[in-house]
């Protein structure tokens, strides 16, 4: 089965390293090939059984293990940008709060699982587009420490769905597109099969040098700061650190985002029109530019990402000083 994304043509800037020839004929938008293997995840039921009859099982089986394959040049140094985006003005680290699934489902009279299913498809495209545009780090808030308060059926569905995403799409991107991958959050509370899947994916991506995708799973900003403080207190107790040695750099090294070379986002995007950060990367976003999109995340398209990036590159960032 093959699905093509038909979008209006846009001017393309192709950016390459100086050692490679310019390719200005590569298409910006690609076909997405969806495969059809069904998998059982750990000892838990197949995800097909978690859906209501409103989503056909054949459609879910086809799309769940899909790999959205962008027709990107084999030379991974090629960056493809729409006409009004310039590489030197783009954020290096983009963070995103994917919000609005509940309203998306309610507006359509559908179970929440449908919204999460569509949201994961959008997440796949987001990863591909950020890599295509040359973003260095993408951190996405997929499950917060507070999300355990949701109905058990929804939580179980999300855990199964995200494990499937890592097993199929993420692992394929790791192997074929040099994707780096890390999960930040308290992994000890996740299902054991998911912990194993995460460890395997992180290990296989360890030597990669491409875009770094951070999946914030069972993550909370306050908890991140508290755990960092406990680590520092332990080092003070053991005589490894002295109080005079503690500074911002030392503190940041104890945060979960120390797994990446660029821990502090330049741009934070939140979908659904809500104007809050919801306990996400509280220390790290101190100087991030904030962009609030009105779209619900299951409706978030490439054009919406481009608009957020375009808005970012028009902003003046002074970091507390004054622009000359």
Describe this structure in words.
The protein has 324 residues and is an alpha/beta fold. It is 34% helix and 15% strand. It has helices at 57-64, 101-108, 112-133, 152-177, 192-204, 221-237, 248-252, 302-313, and strands at residues 2-4, 12-15, 31-33, 79-82, 93-97, 137-144, 180-184, 212-219, 267-270, 289-292. A six-stranded parallel β-sheet has the order 7-8-6-5-9-10, with helices on both faces. Strands 1-3 form a two-stranded antiparallel sheet. Strands 2-4 form a two-stranded antiparallel ribbon. The longest helix is centred in the middle third of the chain and has 26 residues, at 152-177. Residues 1-9 and 17-75 have low confidence and may be disordered.
Give the terminus-to-terminus CA distance: 55 Å
Give the overall form: globular
Q: Mean pLDDT across all residues, rounded?
A: 83
**Count of DSSP strands:** 10
Low-pLDDT regions: 1-9, 17-75
Helix content, binned percent: 25-40%
Instruction: Return the structural class.
Output: alpha/beta
> Can you write the helix and strand succession as a string?
EEEHEEHHEHEHEHHEEH
Strand composition percent? 5-15%
């Amino acid at each position: 089965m093959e699905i093509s994304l038909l979008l209006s043509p846009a001017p393309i800037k192709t950016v390459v390293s100086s050692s490679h020839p310019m390719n200005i004929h590569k298409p910006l938008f690609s076909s997405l090939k969806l495969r059809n293997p069904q998998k059982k995840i750990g000892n838990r039921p197949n995800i097909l059984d978690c859906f209501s009859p409103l989503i056909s099982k054949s459609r879910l089986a086809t799309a769940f293990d899909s790999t959205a394959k962008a027709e990107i040049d084999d030379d991974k140094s090629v960056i493809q940008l729409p006409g009004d985006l310039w590489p030197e003005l783009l954020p290096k680290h983009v963070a995103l709060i994917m919000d609005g699934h509940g309203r998306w489902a309610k507006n359509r009279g559908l179970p929440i699982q449908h919204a999460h299913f569509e949201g994961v498809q959008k997440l796949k495209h987001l990863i591909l587009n950020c890599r295509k545009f040359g973003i260095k780090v993408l951190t996405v808030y997929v499950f917060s420490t507070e999300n355990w308060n949701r109905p058990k059926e929804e939580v179980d569905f999300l855990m199964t769905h995200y494990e499937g995403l890592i097993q199929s799409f993420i692992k394929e991107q790791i192997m074929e597109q040099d994707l780096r991958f890390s999960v930040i959050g308290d992994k000890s509370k996740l299902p054991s099969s998911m912990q194993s899947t995460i460890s395997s994916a992180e290990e296989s991506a360890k030597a990669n040098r491409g875009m770094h995708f951070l999946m914030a799973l069972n993550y909370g900003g306050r908890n991140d700061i508290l755990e960092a403080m406990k680590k520092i207190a332990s080092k003070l107790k053991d005589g490894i650190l002295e109080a005079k040695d503690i500074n911002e750099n030392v503190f940041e090294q104890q945060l979960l985002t120390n797994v990446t070379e660029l821990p502090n986002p330049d741009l934070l995007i939140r979908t659904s029109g809500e104007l809050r950060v919801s306990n996400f990367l509280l220390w790290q976003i101190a100087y991030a530019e904030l962009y609030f999109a009105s779209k619900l995340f299951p409706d978030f398209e490439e054009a919406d990402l481009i608009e957020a990036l375009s808005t970012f590159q028009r902003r003046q960032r002074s970091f507390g000083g004054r622009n000359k």
